[in-house]
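[step 3/7] fold_predict: job queued, chain A
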Amino acid sequence: MLARYTREFRYNIRLATPVIFGMLGHTLVALIDNIMVGQLGSAELAAVSLGNSFMFVAMSLGIGFSTAITPLVAEADAAENREGGKSAFKHGLVLCTILAIFLLGVLLVAKPVMYSMNQPKEVVDLAMPYLDLIAVSLIPLIIFQALKQFSDGLSMTKYPMYATFLANGVNILLNYMFIFGKFGAPAWGVIGAGVGTLASRVVMVIYLYILLYRDKKSSGYVTDLKLFSLQKDKVKKLLNLGIPSGMQMFFEMGIFTASVWLSGALGKNAQAANQIALNLSSMTFMVASGFGVAAMIRVGNQVGLKKYKELRRIAQSMFLLTLITAFIFAAVFMLGNKIFPKLYLDLDDVSQLKDNMEVVAIASSLLFISAIFQISDTVQVVALGVLRGMQDVKIPTIITFISYWLIAFPISYYLSAYTELASMGIWIGLLTGLTFSGTLLYLRFNRLTKKLIRDKEIAV
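[step 4/7] structure written:
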């Protein structure tokens, strides 16, 4: 019985691995920024955290919207409908670009809000110029996402990974130069991290387009697009899929962003610790997200073929595989919760030793809670991928809103502001919301797949 699912593991892993490495590459950009900037002090690390919290809110909408491209391309690819796939990519690329420009404007207008958020003033002063640079990087990042989601829809998951690896190399080099003033470059500190991020994202989108242009399978899709010739029905379909998908990611990333703001109200050390725990947790989340994308691709293929029993079996195999990885990550976090935070800070700096040790202590407790929610986080992200592959996005959007903003946020706020749990209270709220979301989304998948199978059997 179990073999029905485990025999899919090899292909699932092969499809998901490049996606995982690509997503880890995105997270690695933030990890590198955090580790390098962390050497300057806890205030600088908190500033990067605060600046990225604004970026993540906007980025979540853009990345979430772009996921609408993948199931449409995957469905068209399985049905051998080349024109349908090209149309989905073209319309998705145009809409993603428009959205990116709009989100950039919103970020720049919203910047002064940081001064009224009860954050440490020295942190806000450092974060403002950093946010200017990473806000501009939103445009190449979301255009890259459109290209990536298209590539994923064709099951060509390696190219985005290659582009992300190159971007990380550029980011490391430029960070080293402009944060610390190496190779004759000015020492710009936090601003230098923004320069590295912006440049690396421009390189990333250019390189991915070149790879897709040169590949025989994808070249016909990415050339002669006629970007100003759009069809109303195609735009409407992408909006119907993309807006709810964007809101799903917005609600989820928004609650983690809120954790940055809530921790900022507890002081710079609590905020720095929260950033460390978030950064490490996001690494494992990207692994689950990679499997979620693979599930979306495979489910989208089965929708195109109308093989609903296979769809359910493949999705179940993905749940099983990711649960195994979640238990492994949970064990790693529990065993290393006191070790990992030390990688982010200069414990040899006597002048900041007291602050840094407090950061380590807080981050260690947060990683223990993160270890527990690896399971529910895995279930909810794979379930979202499966449901997006089935083009079911509206009910899952409601589920994510309720889970994160009607359940998780009130718990996080109350426990952090009115109890001695402080930072741990924030993460207990996150654990509760993720568990609620994972449970309801899985039940939604279970109900829909059984209905599809039953309806097809009745029709036959």
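[step 5/7] annotate
The chain has a mean pLDDT of 89.
The first helix runs from residue 3 to 6.
exit 0
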